[in-house]
UniProtKB/TrEMBL annotation:
Residues 95-158, 293-363 form the Potassium channel domain. It comes from Irena cyanogastra (Philippine fairy-bluebird). Pfam families: Ion_trans_2 (PF07885). The gene is Kcnk18. It comes from the Eukaryota. This is KCNKI protein. Its main location: membrane.
Length: 390
């Protein structure tokens, strides 16, 4: 019996782990599939578009040739010539000098999709065709809520981890302070008081049905043949049934009726979907701790990113990561190798979750501050009315 119960317990624990992880994996997998489908769509639409020479491009080339003919060794020092060159290149469209097949490859399109549903939008890659623009709006309409759902779901996990770590740190800190403040005599007195309290608690534990029946004098004096043996056995059986752990009784019901187990697992999965965002609402850690976590998180990426992007140093990479994680995305700092940065997408999602938690904590602190200011102003107004009545 023991050998057969162990595999059953292993299967049940595996099923519980699977159904616990299933909602989180479902969200992440749906986001990954959505990004890959968008990459295939935009690479097909924007990558295969026909490159036509527009009238603006022809005018740009004519003006450039006109300025090139005037070029000489002395003209480079002329400020008017430099202004004309700068004005001419400001009118140039970057699309004229881009090969669509290279820019809108699968990895380039995947990078573009990530910038769309993360609301970063660097601006260096954007759809040119009319169909691509319409599909980009439709893609963002469904992708941004899905991304926010993933951020909220993963934010619950990070919030749980942060709260547990912070609580354990506070417990350890309180233990260290208690050990420093506690002397030998006071500690011995506290231990004696604890032992006395525990002994009192043990003495005052409730009696079982058998002990109550044995303590009754009528039961002891009455002959054995006049006792209701069946009722006594039923009481003992009910007592044993109540003292059994609930897990064993649920396992017995599940083994006798598997449909109940399936309905219970399905209801638990649905409850997990309903609890999205609850842990994030309960999170209460210092805002300074979150700022420190963000600083360390961005610093680690800023130290790694210059190995991929040679045009960046630590400060430029730090600025780029901050602009990305806060979804500002000016586009002033561009990437030369978006393929390498795609492997950095997991870093972006986790970082956006950390920043989202920090913004949520900052929002809660601002609400508390506004409440205090309003209550203070209201109390001051009430006191002024009492002092100076009309």
């Amino acid at each position: 019996m023991a050998t057969t119960s162990q595999p059953l317990r292993g299967k049940t624990t595996c099923k519980k782990i699977f159904w616990a992880v299933f909602p989180h994996a479902c969200f992440i997998l749906s986001l990954v599939i959505y990004a890959f489908l968008g990459a295939l769509m935009f690479s097909h639409i924007e990558g295969t578009r026909e490159v036509t020479v527009s009238e603006e491009y022809r005018t740009f080339l004519q003006n450039l040739m006109h300025l090139a003919r005037k070029l000489s060794d002395n003209v480079t020092e002329n400020e008017e010539f430099n202004d004309d060159i700068r004005e001419l290149f400001n009118t140039a469209d970057p699309v004229w000098f881009i090969n669509p097949e290279e820019r809108w490859s699968f990895f380039g399109s995947l990078f573009f999709c990530c910038t769309v549903f993360t609301t970063v939008g660097y601006g260096n890659t954007y759809p040119v065709t009319r169909i691509g623009k319409y599909l980009c709006m439709l893609y963002a309409l469904f992708g941004i809520p899905l991304m926010f759902l993933v951020l909220t779901d993963m934010g619950d996990i990070l919030a749980t981890v942060l709260s547990k770590c912070y609580n354990e740190f506070r417990k350890l800190q309180s233990k260290i302070l208690a050990s420093k403040l506690c002397s030998g005599s006071t500690c011995s007195k506290r231990n004696e008081l604890k032992s006395r309290a525990q002994s009192k608690i043990v003495i005052n534990e409730p009696l079982t049905i058998m002990e109550v029946l044995r303590s009754q004098p009528g039961v002891k004096r009455r002959p054995v043949k006049y006792r209701n043996v069946e009722l006594f056995e039923m009481l003992i059986a009910r007592e044993n049934e109540n003292t059994q752990p609930a897990r064993n009784r649920s396992m017995e019901r599940w083994s006798s009726c598997p449909e109940l187990a399936r309905e219970k697992t399905v209801s638990r999965v649905i409850e997990n979907f309903d609890k999205i965002g609850k842990e994030l609402e309960k999170l209460d850690v210092p805002i300074v701790l979150m700022v420190l976590v963000i600083f360390v998180y961005i610093s680690c990426a800023a130290a790694i990113l210059p190995n991929w992007e040679k045009n960046m140093d630590f400060q430029e990479a730090f600025y780029f990561c901050f602009i990305t994680l806060t979804t500002i995305g000016f586009g002033d700092t561009k990437l030369e190798h978006p393929k390498f940065f795609l492997f950095f997408s997991l870093y972006i999602i986790i970082g956006m979750e950390i920043v989202f938690i920090a913004f949520k904590l900052g929002q809660d602190r601002l609400i508390v501050l506004y409440k205090k200011v309003i209550s203070f102003c209201a109390e001051k107004n009430m006191t002024s009315k009492k002092i100076y009545p009309k």
